[in-house]
Amino acid sequence: MGKLRAAQYACSLLGHALQKRGASPELQKQIRQLEGHLSLGRKLLRLGNSADALESAKRAVHLSDVVLRFCITVSHLNRALYFACDNVLWAGKSGLAPRVDQEKWAQRSFRYYLFSLIMNLSRDAYEIRLLMEQESSACSRRQKSSGGGVPGGTETGGPGGPGSPAGSLPRLALKLQLRFLLLARVLRSHPPLLLDVVRNACDLFIPLDKLGLWRCGPGVVGLCGLVSSILSLLTLICPWLRLKP
User: Fold this and answer.
1) Torsion-angle region of residue 152: left (phi > 0), alpha (psi -120 to 50) or beta?
2) Which sequence spans correspond to the domains of the chain?
3) Is the pLDDT of residue 156 over 50?
4) Is 214 in a helix, a strand, or coil?
5) Number of helices followed by number of strands (H, E) in the chain
6) CA 91, CA 178: separation in Å to the nearest integer?
7) 161: Cβ–Cβ under 8 A, 6 or more apart, which residues?
8) Please, are residues 89 and 105 in contact by the beta-carbon 8 Å criterion?
9) Alpha-carbon gap, residue 97 to 90, rounded angstroms
10) From residue 235, how far is each of 190, 191, 192 by CA, in Å?
11) Contacts 24+ apart (CB under 8 A), 2-8
């Protein structure tokens, strides 16, 4: 499944590159047809994925953390609806249900896909916040045990005192820099979370473009889909890179 997805978005990216370079219309047509066949093949293989997504939602209901329970459960429910719409689209494209309004069902499927990705990114943001708080507390404990001050000297007043405009801007810049360094350290220490953030962020461009909320173009969509597919394949090859639960 992941290989088909990667091949489909590679075709999308290749088609865009060929169009930019002025390739022959016949070659462009063949690439588009190949992309369409790969898309239809993926839809066929996704038959039954709605039931898997519902089972995952049932398991997520029992998570102890309220925020994780909400984000993961809602994400799986939206994925189940997305796959159901995808099945209807497959029936229409394969000729089993020729009267299906494919444009309407495609818009529905991408809306559910977008909601699922928003929930995934919300879950990622929540986990990042928890890890940053833990890392910050650990740093504070280490500094107190060693007799040091606050990291970066953020409690020392700048020129003109802590409340003066001359001191507030450098302090704000220093705080932002420390938060960014802390974020980078957390993501570097947790590769599964980093991969999940990048994959969901890449996938987000696909429904945004298809729904007309943010026109990215076929080149960006193809590149983001290809990167996301490669990362998904990486989690299959190395299961420890999959974010849990």
Assistant:
1) left
2) 24-111, 186-244
3) no
4) coil
5) 8, 0
6) 53
7) 167
8) yes
9) 9
10) 14, 11, 8
11) 2/229, 2/232, 2/233, 2/236, 3/233, 4/38, 4/41, 4/42, 4/45, 5/42, 5/225, 5/229, 5/232, 6/226, 6/229, 6/230, 6/233, 7/38, 8/35, 8/38, 8/39, 8/42, 8/225
DSSP code string of 6-37: HHHHHHHHHHHHHHHTT--HHHHHHHHHHHHH
Mean pLDDT of all residues in 2-18: 92
Q: pLDDT tens-digit profile of 197-214?
A: 999 999 999 999 999 999
Are the CB atoms for 89 and 43 separated by under 8 Å?
yes
Alpha-carbon gap, residue 26 to 32, rounded angstroms: 10
Note the pLDDT of residue 152: 43
Tokens of 241: 């890179």
Predicted local confidence at residue 183, as pLDDT:
94
pLDDT digits (tens, 9 = 90+) for 28-58: 999 999 999 999 899 888 888 999 999 999 9
Cα 59 to Cα 41: distance, rounded to the nearest angstrom = 29
Cα angle: 35, vertex 37, 39; to 5 degrees: 70
